[in-house]
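Example 5.3 — Alkyl sulfatase or beta-lactamase
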Amino acid sequence: MKNLIATLCLLVTAAGVASGQTQVEPDTALRMLNAQQQQFEKGVVKVADNVYTAVGFHGANTSMIVGTDGVIIVDTLFGPTSAAKAAEAFRQYSDQPVKAIIYTHSHGDHIGGASAFVGDEKPDIYGTETFGSAEGVNKAVDPVKQKRNIRQFGRNLSSSEIINRGVAPAGTDDGDRGKGFLPPTVTVPSSGLKTTIAGVEIEFHIGPGETDDAMFIWLPKEKVLLAGDNFYSSFPNLYAIRGTAYRDVLNWSESVGKMAALKPHVVVPGHTMPIQGQEAATTALTDYSEAIRSVYDQTVRGINAGKGPDQLAHEVKLPEHLKDKPYLIEFYGSVPHAVRAIYAGLLGWYDGNPTTLNPLEPKVKAQKIAKLAGGINKLTEQMNAALANQDYQWALELSEHLKWLDDGDRKLARTVKIEALRELAAREYNAPNRNYYLSYANELESGQLSELWF
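Solution (predicted structure tokens):
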């Protein structure tokens, strides 16, 4: 891991990466994402005399705590196929029966494989009072969320296109999603729980963050913290571009701060490699909490100064002393996306500027932009020039206007949009952005999308 940290720090420094900007030269983006691969290299990591974490068997981690007459499993991966492989790997360290299963939260990649760990003896299964609320209540938009989920995670990308998912490997076995899920049988109260399972002292702490139903697990004797998805080695996904309800950023920062206060000797993330050593683990959690809070505070100050989300998304940065931390590089979450989510979560869509209160519909705006440019031909020339000059975001935006024009070359607009998306993807070290750009480009090229390109 020391080599990974050193590699990432060198690449970040060489690229001049600034918080909030995840576009770099293509070769640098590629090297950074390939270096991040080491964070989910498949294997079992011993984090204490009786605690083992299986990394890389699917997207998330699963852990085994060995007790006197049984073991405890924390999180169970995506489905029984991947979970069975992790369970088999654990058996070289203990063949005792599973006495308990703990779900840190209800995201599918942490709960879908429970059946693979269970034998004849039925274990207690622990979840919070609010278990199941991870994705909010927006079931009505599940059809479009499923499409966006596929794009964010690059599920339809070829092996030559996808590198990884930021905090998870690509090419995971997803065909049995959730088929091993077993519902909780023991509810952890909102005040938390301290108990002994299989002779192991264990504490359950409620810790809302990435989800409202999250908790973290503390082993006071071993000084091991199992953080769930409130911590992993990347700037956190305070908003997921697949589409999520507002994730309470302030709660997330406070929950990670409570973890840091325990001064763990090891922190086991929900994804990526454990961080071992009291100083390293505690510092990582302290920095993580501060980074989240800083983005929140800067956004709130900007909101109260009358700034809109578009401006703030370009202005808010991580503090200077945090921007190069390897566990805060924007491989998965993104500062600009977080800023926009905080804005919408606190105030809704309207930015307070009467200009944006009732904006022109896209087709009318496109017509006026074309007129301003000197006509459709001039607009088309500007789009082509932007592409030729490697001004890919501007080319993308101009193609979006051209597609609305009845007399415009929609086929050319589509071609330019596809090329601009792929060029932006090549420069992205933020994996969800990269995967989304490439997935959307492929859908456009194959004709899967409507004339509106939704």
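Remark. The domain at 360-446 is CATH 1.25.40.880 (Serine Threonine Protein Phosphatase 5, Tetratricopeptide repeat).
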